[in-house]
Design goal:
Layout lengths: L1 H7 L7 H16 L1 H11 L5 H17 L11 H9 L23 E5 L7 H10 L5 E5 H6 L21 E3 L6 H16 L21 E2 L3 E2 L4 H10 L10 H9 L3 H18 L2
Parallel strand pairs: 1-2, 2-3
Antiparallel strand pairs: 4-5
Helix pairs in contact: 4-8, 5-8, 10-11
Bound molecules: iron/sulfur cluster.
Amino acid sequence: MVDDQASRFHTPTIDPDVLESWQSYVARFAEDDSFIQQQVEQNVMVTTLDRAVGMVDKLYNWGRRSSIWPMQFGLACCAIEMISTAASRYDIDRFGAGLFRPSPRQADLMIVSGTVTKKMVPQIVRLWNQMPEPRYCLSMGACATGGGPFKEGYNVVSGIDKFLPVDVYVPGCPPTPQALLHGLMTLQRKIDGQTIRDVSWYGRAPVGEIPIPVLGPDLVDLRTVPALQARAMAAGDMPAEPEPVNEAVAADDGISEEMAERLAVWRERAAGETGS
Ligand code: SF4
């Protein structure tokens, strides 16, 4: 009876191992700020708007990353690798990206797979403009990324990123299907990090259209026209008041009347944007 009482009020001893791990845990709080942050994130549930947005982001990003539909579109030899990636051996469907869409209106991802010629760029940009947001661009292979073996060639642009915002680059000539799948997973990770707070397609500002480059004697990126004009004027190669562009360009450079008109429109817009 007496022994029972004694055991009931016995002061428990602490296991030295447990004590040591507890002490090191407490010491980390004092030494490591990121440890505190990590513990708060893991163990504290905060019911705030931030938390709610974070949960919406997770769900929203999961939906997008799991159904990236690429556009059915290829340019050169890299496209063959892209096609084999979509075949049964590599099973791109497990990423939700096996549904290649024949229309840009239904596509989320433009895989620029192959050599980008100057003749093709206007069409590529037009297709990009026709894709709805959210849209992504993957540059596949050395040609699409920087011109590849044809860099500096008279007919090839040195990288599609001169015209489109590229999200992921996949190196190689050609990249293997595994490399393309890795690029796809990289894009998924990028999507995971996005939040509805700052993605451009939910912003107040309209999502800008990229001006379609004009194929003349050489390729003209219309966004560069004001800067080129300023440089030419500074060098004295151009009169301060240039002639109306339609006749000047059409006559001097031999581009069509329609192209010249489009050039004039974009020049006006660019001048309005720069306030000049
Ligand atoms: S990167 Fe190589 S494989 Fe790909 S399109 Fe260019 S030349 Fe062909």
